[in-house]
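Each field is set out underneath.
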Amino acid sequence: MRRLHNILGLALLICALPGCSPVAAVSGSTPAGNAAARPQASQGNSNLMVLANKFKGANRAPVTIVQFGDSHTAADLFTGEMRRLLQGQYGDGGIGLISATPVPGTRYEQVILKTAKRQWELVSARNQQSSQFPLGGYLSVPLVAKPSVRIEARTPSAQRYRVSALYQAQTSTSLLLRDNRGQNRRLLAATGGQWRFGPVVNNVGLPLDLTLDTRPGTVLGGWYLQNQKNAGVIFSALGINGARLEVQDKWQPGWQDTLKSLRPDLVILAYGTNEAFDDTLDLNLYQAQLKQTLERLRRDLPRAVVLIVGPPDSIKQRKAHGCAARQPQKLAAIIAIQRQAAQQANALFWDWQAYMGGQCSVVAWQAQGLARGDLVHLTADGYRKSATGLYDYLRTQLKLK
């Protein structure tokens, strides 16, 4: 916390030198263990029907998906394939929310963020204690008067976007956006200590250069990129390496309002691996935290579908005798708690470990080139295969053809 205060103080000092909502408005063979990945509850309310109809009408209005998670999400391979499959079927609605500046160890499937050295200080909810973090858990603090960021497409694209900044400002400032067609400037009004999305800038392409006219107390939390056509699937991947569900408790009170402003139709919670590797984890406390999170989502987003993605299979003690002894001590309990919590909250639950083939199946996946040598993370092919399983599961639940 002290480090964060120092950073913010430095930003205030440097910047003292001369110098609306972004939204108006899931093929492959199935492993033998997939039967165990079927839902334990079918979300017996109208939300599934609402979401199914949203997908069917995605050519006319956007379908917004937000996934929270750990390193499995932060790599944007699992979520990237989900995004590709969904957008291929229902239309490309855009990239969604990304961090404001590059995050070491985190990538985005569709874009690359670039900044010059010593222009920004990145602060992550992974290893900092603060109540200032926005939705997503990353703060980008300006260190110079006019810091800039470039957003590039990984592959050339003629896609046009609606772009807005997630920011916090003590006094009003402005943002300059430049693409190959010209430039636009937008006022970023003072936010009264809260996180807000700035005005939408329409019809911009990539690469895009963004320059902040910094004022004391100005920090960025991310960029929201939506297809200019205002239709199709938007899939935001909000992952933090090493994160647990409790990371959301570090975000500024009221971050749920930012989430609500995105109007998500589907919210995915994909935590559990890091909890499972903690032998000292208080399972009762974890159960209570998950219950509280689901209750809050139900209260804040009563019409959204909520989906829990269980942790994939993993190995912790390679030399132990017997499968159970090799697994993370808390893994089975975490999965059981998630399944039960989903039942109680009328949410969906996808058992990733069961899809892989059950306990210790990660060993077979590693032999097939689908899991990495650490027997925790998957390869790109493994994540994409897993995404296909989740995609098929979701379409089954929604009764989509």
The chain is about 30% helix and 25% strand. Residues 283-300 form the longest helix (18 residues).
